[in-house]
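Late entry, written up from scratch paper. The run itself happened at the end of the previous shift, but nothing got recorded in the book at the time, so transcribing now.
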Amino acid sequence: MPTTATTPRALQPIRNVVSSSWLYPFKGIYYFLAHREFYPLFGRRLIPLTITSIVILTLLFIFTYLPQAAFLLIFHGPTAWVSAVFLVLGEGQVAIALLFEAFMVDETLVDVFDATLIREGLESLVSPSRILHQDAPTAVKSLGKPTSSAIYSPFSFRQILEFILFLPLNLIPVVGTPFFLVITGARAGPFHHYRWFQLRGLTKKEKKNEIRRRKWKYTWFGTVALLLQLVPVLSMFFLLTTACGSALWVVKLEEQKMLVEEAPVRVVEDGVGGEGGEDGEVPPPYSDDPI
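Output as recorded:
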């Protein structure tokens, strides 16, 4: 009969691929809506940008949807109409991402991320990097100016370029669109924890190790986050709630790390710690650096 030490290790390859990380973007939606203190962050910049993104998507669907659907009919048959929707939404996402950068919405995402951490008891993680008003009534109002560089997710022309290059995957019948979503989601996933890496002062090598340990977890998180951002009208809102979900995931990881530090012998014996770190994961191969 396998021991308690060997059973978790035997299941490790499955746990590396099958992860609950995909739930955190949805948890972020609930958390954001459940706490009214976050609402002003949405109205500050994102309502005007949401209206602008609606205009962009409307124009794209009016002028590009039918021609692209007609072209895809050659390859996809009846499913061309669905594939064309994802193709147009992907093109819209590129335009909205450029709009996002131009209006510096990243600052708002940093506020959502930091406020969530503070609200969940990780004030000590945020305080070295920004001024906090201790007498403020809410976590959002306690946020002062950052004392060092504060970036939620760095803008990457490489990521935008890869997104455009992968768009033709939608031409492949049936499997093309899921492949496109997973591949681009895998590339984008680690960027959602860039702020966490920044708060901890990790080196480039340490960031790579963190990403390698959670490769599949970041893939599923990034894929769901991308799907939400492709939703017309609500894409800008989901940008905020995904930042909230990313922070909630950090809270869980920090709790796990604390358990490992407090009981290293027990955790290793149970097969939770050791070589895989606070996630209990054995690093899978990784050959790229999205940071």
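The mean pLDDT is 80.
(Scratch paper discarded after transcription.)
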